[in-house]
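On to our target:
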Amino acid sequence: MSFGILDQRHMKLRVQNSVHPSGYRRPLRRLALALRSILPATIGASLCWAQEAFAGVTGVSAYGQDHYSSTDNINGIEDSQGLQNELLGVPGTIFTAGLARTEGQVVAMDFTDTFYNSSGLDFSSTEGFDRSGDAIAYYGGHGRCQAPVSTGCATSSDCTTPWNSGWYMPGVCVGLPDRSGRCLYAYNHFMTLISGEAVRYSGGDRRRQMALGETNGVTWAGVGSDGGVNVAVFSMSCAFGPGTETTDVSLFAGLMLWLGVAAHNNGDTASAGDRGQWFGWDYAQFGAGSIVADGWGNAINHIRGGQGCKMTSGINPGTGINGCGSNTAVAEGATDAEVDGLINSTWGGITQSSRKPTGSQVTRVVRTCNYDCSTYPVIL
């Protein structure tokens, strides 16, 4: 794995490039699970994962959908509940069970803030994705995509004409190892539910529906304080547009971290039931002091589903992506110091709502690619 720093616009992008392993960590995971089953509870409690060390917001909620139609079945339930099961299965875990909503239980109002719709239930203790008792809320399901235009480009300065009415600036030139650059413009992102509803979460007007993370004492973004989740995970197609993350973060209203999957130019998120499990595996292996965004990125090394990225020779299989893309983490904060602390939040740190951001002036993005995106930059 290579590591690099790239500054772009008002973002500092830490690009981590991952190569899918031949399963070398899976035996370690089996060993860890075996030890978990035989270690006395007193030993487990003595590890750095002790619950009392991180008293705070500890809930983990899962929202998953599988059966969109007779021909469209995905693994959203297994995916979302995989994280929940992994985190709760650690001896002495700092986390507690939140909600586990599936199929038709997952509806648009679960994600909708009352500021945008008076019927919104995102704050509801029995339904809401933005419950005040949750450290993490994880959605596994479908999302709506917009493919890059066919306009070729050498740099992002070539991408100045979002000719489709649904697109808007900024435009970026997205590169890949197997093709020339293509322009991608910002566009409105949606979750799509089995009910047929679409939940818009990007864009700067009141037609969007989400505002996540607001808490008493942190009432910025103009949406009140009727929520409070600390980390939101969107395991779906096109959660982000690569290079347009600063226009996609309008759902931030106090979130510490937003995690999702981005396809770069030629792919899509794969239906991978083990994505959430491998994300949680980082906590199970390395404890409450390990960095959440790194766990999300490292999961790309282990996920079995997906066709992977076509490289200069052969295919990098698995990774949870059909084509080339990344597991992406985004944080917002009022200052460089604040946002740097948030993007590096540990599993223990995300239980502490006192660490919530106090503004949105600075954005940090971390991408972990399923190809070498130092040699082949995402944005040209």
Remarks:
- The radius of gyration is 19 Å.
- The longest helix spans residues 26-38.
- DSSP finds seven helices and 21 strands in the chain.
